C-alpha cells in the first residue's frame, strides 16, 4: 500500500514504511537515535518469549534488522500486532503530513508519576509513530515538529481515559517517535502550532493515534471488527 509518498509493507513480524529516496529523520529509535538519513522505518513485532532474553534491546533490534536486510532503516519495536497499524493524513496550505502509528497500552504510564502496578503483559505494547512532512526542515524545525507530534499523541491517549494504577495514562514507558522530511534547499525554519507544518503534523498524528488507541481498546474488549 502507498499513501502520501510512503509505501507500506506489512508482513509479520515486520511493518516497513519506505520512501522513494533518502529522508532526514529525528527519533530516539533504539538502533539509530538522534538525526539520521534513511529511506525506511521498520517496526519489529516482538513476543513475550522474545522479551525474556532481551537484555540488550538495541543490539537485539540491530541483529534482527540486519537479518532482514533492513540494517539502514530506523528501527522500532513493539508487542502490538503490527497488522493493527493506523494512518492519519492532513494537508494545510499545500504542506502534507502523514502519520503511521501502532499503539498498545499494556505498560501505560502517566507523566510525572511512574506506575508501580505490574504491566498487563511482559512485552511492552508501546506507541510507535512515524510522521512525515512534505517539506525540508531545519534542525530546529525538526525539534519543534517532534514536540507537536508528541503533544498530539499525548492528547489522543489522554482523551481515551484509560487508567492504570488509578491514574489516566498519557503514554507508555516505551513510546518512540520518528519525524521524517525530505532533504532540500531552503528548509522551513519554524514548525510551531501557528504554522501550516505544525497544524498538519498535529492533525495527522492526532487522527492516527486516536484510531490506534480505539483499535487497541476494541481488541481488549473483544469488539474489534
Structure write-up:
This protein is 28% helix and 34% strand. The protein has 225 residues and is an alpha+beta fold. Strands 1, 2, 3, 4, 5, 6, 7, 9 and 13 form a 9-stranded mixed sheet that branches. Strands 8-12 form a two-stranded antiparallel sheet. A hairpin with a 2-residue loop joins strand 10 and strand 11 (167-168). Helix 3 packs parallel to helix 4. The longest helix is centred in the C-terminal third of the chain and has 26 residues, at 196-221. The two termini are 20 Å apart. This is Adenosylcobinamide amidohydrolase.
Number of strands: 13
Number of helices: 4
How much helical structure, as a percent, in the residues?
25-40%
CATH topology, by name, is L-amino peptidase D-ALA esterase/amidase
So, CATH architecture? 4-Layer Sandwich
What spatial form do the alpha-carbon principal axes imply?
A: globular
Reported for the largest beta sheet, the result is:
9 strands, mixed
Mean pLDDT, as a whole number? Answer: 91
pLDDT < 50 runs, ≥5 residues? none
| Portion in strands | 25-35%
Global Rg: 17 Å
Protein name: Adenosylcobinamide amidohydrolase
InterPro entries: AdoCbi_amidolase, CbiZ
Amino acid at each position: 500500500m502507498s499513501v502520501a509518498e510512503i509505501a507500506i509493507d506489512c508482513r509479520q513480524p515486520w511493518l516497513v514504511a519506505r520512501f522513494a529516496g533518502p529522508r532526514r529523520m529525528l527519533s530516539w529509535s533504539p538502533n539509530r537515535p538522534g538525526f539520521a538519513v534513511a529511506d525506511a522505518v521498520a517496526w519489529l513485532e516482538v513476543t513475550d518469549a522474545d522479551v525474556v532474553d532481551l537484555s540488550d534491546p538495541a543490539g537485539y533490534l540491530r541483529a534482527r534488522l540486519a537479518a532482514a536486510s533492513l540494517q539502514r532503516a530506523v528501527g522500532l519495536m513493539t508487542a502490538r500486532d503490527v497488522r493493527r497499524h493506523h494512518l492519519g493524513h492532513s494537508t494545510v496550505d499545500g504542506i502534507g503530513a502523514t502519520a503511521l502509528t501502532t499503539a498498545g497500552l499494556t505498560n501505560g504510564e502517566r507523566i510525572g508519576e511512574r506506575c508501580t502496578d505490574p504491566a498487563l503483559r511482559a512485552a511492552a505494547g508501546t506507541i510507535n509513530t512515524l510522521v512525515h512532512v512534505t517539506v525540508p526542515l531545519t534542525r530546529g524545525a525538526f525539534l519543534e515538529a517532534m514536540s507537536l507530534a508528541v503533544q498530539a499523541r499525548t492528547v489522543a491517549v489522554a482523551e481515551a481515559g484509560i487508567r492504570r494504577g488509578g491514574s489516566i495514562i498519557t503514554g507508555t514507558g516505551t513510546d518512540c517517535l520518528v519525524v521524517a522530511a525530505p532533504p532540500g534547499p531552503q528548509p522551513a525554519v519554524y514548525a510551531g502550532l501557528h504554522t501550516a507544518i505544525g497544524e498538519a503534523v498535529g492533525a495527522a498524528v492526532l487522527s492516527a493515534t486516536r484510531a490506534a488507541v480505539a483499535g487497541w481498546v476494541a481488541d481488549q474488549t473483544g469488539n474489534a471488527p
